[in-house]
Amino acid sequence: MTSYNKVRRVSFAAYILLSVLFAWLLIHLGRKDIERAAAFSEKEKAYIESLMKCSSSIDDAMGALRPYGLRSKSELASFSSKFDALRKSMNTLRSETHEEKVAADLQRLRAKSTMIASALDSASRNIAEDSGSDSELILREDFSAISAALVESAGIVHGLVASEYEQSGFWQRQSLFFFKRLQYLLVTFFVLTTVFIVLSSSYSGILLRNYLGKLSEGTKQVSSGNLRYRFGGIEPDEMGSLMADFNSMAARLEQQTHELKKMNRELEEKARQLVEANLHKDRFFANMSHELRTPLNSIIGFSDLNIGREDYSREKLVENSRKVLAAAEHLLSLISGLLDLAKADAGVLSPVKDVHDVSETLSGVVEMLRPLAEQRNLRIELECAQSASFPYDEKMIKQVFINLISNAIKFTHEGGVKIRMKRTDDSISVEIEDSGIGISEEDQKKIFNDFHRVENGLTSNYEGVGLGLALSRRLARLHGGDISLSSIPGKGSVFTVKLPTGG
């Protein structure tokens, strides 16, 4: 789109140029008219002065010509001097600057001057010869001719003077013509300026409407939810600055909306987790009450039997005491698990590391749990290619292996459990693979959550409160490691414990 600022600058420059050109035209035309009028005035002034001089010379000549004519040489000489002045004044008259009638009058005036000169020359010869009556007659004729020529010359000069008075209207017409032309030029300039202003304002208005239309469209796009809408082709002017500010606002709004949506998703996830935690809490209390009540009931029942039955033999008392002890140990294990989980969450539980061989730790756990697997007719296999000694808390890591392997045995009905240990340059991995019931993809995302238990028909008869895997992952992470899971429902699961060896 054309720049609004550029159009405004071009319009202003064009207006200034138009004004300068018009001012130059007025000055040029005025100077030409003034020069022409000055030249004409100078010529007219000289011409009028010549006319007045000529008229005065005619009057002088007519005064020198006595009514009775020229009788002596002195009179003839006096008239001749006057006539010479008259001829000089006639010669100063110029007819080329006047109209045709004036030129013809000037030509007639010069003809009369020639005729007077001829008659004067004839009178001079007659006076010099003095031939009697004939000479007197000729002088009278010459006198009549000269007198008539002077009278006619005076009439011509007076006519020319009258004509010049009539020419005074020409000056007025010239002045009126100049001012009328100036008036027409001013009106033309006003009309052109008005048209230019109207056209430039209309075009600027069109540009402004287009810019406002684009801004309105951008506002509609943003208000409808299209926060990625941006203006392109921004010009470096006021409107471009406004569009750039709009783009910045839309970008900030998009970022804030994205952050708000992210926060909403996090809040929704937190709310879901809280709801789920609340459900897990309810299940935990239900399961925990059952789990705690079972060993407590055993302890109370067998203790009552030992106290109430006096006829019990020592062997029976020892057997019941062993059952009480087993129930107490089970109860202690449950309470210890809860306390360890609480310590881990509070940051109080920290590993006491010492150098141990993880293969020996793993072998001890397998041998401890082997009778449990054999009771369920399951195979349990351990593959340790080599020893791996590094600093770790043996009690914690042993607890991790016990939880994972015992879970694998508990959820496997046939087949067995395979434990494989692999070593790299900076870590060891222990894979615990079973051929049990497996875990669905949805439950795999939650299996390490506190108090989570897989609730389906296959797991409803299994004991537990959902703390073993959560505690195992916390213990592994306290060592800088982690536990991962890969499982296929109906085919089994693989839990992988990865621990750093420190190089």
Give your account of this protein's structure:
- The chain has 503 residues and is α+β, with helices and mostly antiparallel strands.
- Among the domains are: 28-170, de novo design (two linked rop proteins) (Up-down Bundle); 350-500, Histidine kinase-like ATPase, C-terminal domain (Heat Shock Protein 90), CATH 3.30.565.10.
- The protein contains eleven helices and seven strands.
- The strands form two sheets. Strands 2-4-5-7-6 form a five-stranded mixed sheet, covered by helices on one side.
- A hairpin with a 3-residue loop joins strand 6 (482-488) and strand 7.
- The radius of gyration is 68 Å and the shape is rod-shaped.
- 18% of the residues are buried.
Put the structure in a nutshell.
The chain has 503 residues and is an alpha+beta fold. The protein has helices at 4-64, 73-91, 100-129, 133-166, 168-223, 238-308, 314-346, 358-375, 394-410, 441-444, 468-478; strands at 354-357, 379-384, 389-392, 416-423, 427-434, 482-488, 492-500. The chain has eleven helices and seven strands.
